[in-house]
UniProtKB/TrEMBL annotation:
It comes from the Bacteria. Pfam families: Peptidase_M28. Gene3D superfamilies: Zn peptidases. This is Zn-dependent exopeptidase M28. GO terms for biological process: proteolysis. One of its GO terms (molecular function) is metalloexopeptidase activity. Residues 2-133 form the Peptidase M28 domain. Coiled coil: none annotated. It comes from Draconibacterium halophilum.
Length: 147
């Protein structure tokens, strides 16, 4: 399992471009990439890529259904036909399955890329459950010998 922080998404996906051209581990041995974005304000989850990569997503659904019990939606991977807007696009382009996790049903106003985006608009309970979902889902993926 590799945790990496990628910089430069907003100005051109520089971190993910670099990693996909210079991976630390072989691309063909990489099971998935999970992108976390705006996970901190809400009451439910949404997973982009969940409908495209259902075998992987089943581990996150199972974790949520058995232990967390939050509303969770999913969508297919969206191909970027114009300018790619997410680090996930660079990983998908080299054959790595991607998910994007974010929270939904905001409890507080969303201040996306604004100075008002401060800690008082965070929902600690959803952040705790997001950590549980990630741990259990990724553990399931890592131990799945069919993937």
């Amino acid at each position: 399992m590799l945790f990496i922080l990628l910089g430069g998404e907003e100005c051109g996906l520089y971190g993910s471009k670099y990693y996909c051209k210079n991976p630390l581990f072989p691309i063909e041995k990489t099971k998935m990439m999970m992108n976390l974005d705006m996970v901190g304000n809400g009451t439910g989850f949404f997973v982009s890529g969940g409908k495209t990569h259902s075998a992987l997503f089943s581990h996150f659904e199972r974790a949520n259904n058995n232990y967390i019990h939050r509303e969770m939606g999913a969508s297919a991977v969206r191909k970027n036909y114009g300018r790619p807007r997410s680090d996930a696009s660079n990983f998908e382009n080299v054959g790595i399955k991607t998910f994007g996790l974010w929270t939904r049903n905001s409890v507080y106003p969303v201040h996306y890329h604004m100075p008002a985006d401060k800690t008082n608009v965070l929902t600690p309970e959803i952040m705790e459950d997001a950590a549980k979902l990630l741990y259990l889902g990724i553990l399931g993926v890592a131990n799945d010998t069919n993937l």
